[in-house]
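User: tokens in, sequence out, please.
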């Protein structure tokens, strides 16, 4: 069996932060079957800033019992047709923002989607795992420490 020292191990669930959106202490589900990562968002509204496409939205964070709304803005990367595991296709907005997991911080693309029926508000897909040089041990949960990015250092939105 080969091992790779440069890869970090994570579990099926991990604590993450999205510093570019001002979000800390968010539980994420790791989904190696999903290509793109996804964030629960509603009230998605495209707009222009300095001639560039942006999107504003409400990110819904926390659990079903303690849901909190967080207004965000981020540059719009693209619109993408996404096919869910049950075969349903949906056109989604795609943003790129920083993801902090353990002691790592890197840029990840997220589709904005309604995940209100899902237990986890954030899904981390296989592209993010590859770029973060992470491997998943499906028998583990919350392997990494919570990211050390205090929420008070984040901007209020993804705006520059």
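Assistant: Sequence out:
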């Amino acid at each position: 069996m080969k091992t790779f020292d440069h890869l970090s191990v994570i579990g099926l669930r991990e604590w993450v932060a999205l510093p570019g959106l001002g979000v800390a202490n968010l539980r994420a589900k790791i989904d190696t079957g999903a290509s793109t990562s996804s964030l629960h968002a509603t009230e998605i509204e495209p707009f222009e800033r300095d001639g560039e496409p942006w999107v504003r939205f409400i990110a819904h964070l926390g659990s079903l019992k303690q849901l909190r709304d967080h207004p965000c803005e981020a540059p719009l990367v693209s619109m993408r047709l996404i096919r869910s595991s049950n075969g349903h296709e949906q056109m989604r907005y795609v943003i790129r923002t920083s993801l902090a997991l353990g002691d790592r911080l890197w840029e990840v693309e997220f589709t904005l989607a309604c995940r209100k029926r899902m237990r986890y508000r954030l899904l981390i897909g296989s592209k993010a795992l590859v770029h973060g040089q992470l491997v998943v041990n499906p028998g583990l949960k919350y392997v990494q420490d919570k990211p050390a990015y205090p929420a008070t250092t984040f901007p209020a939105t993804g705006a520059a």
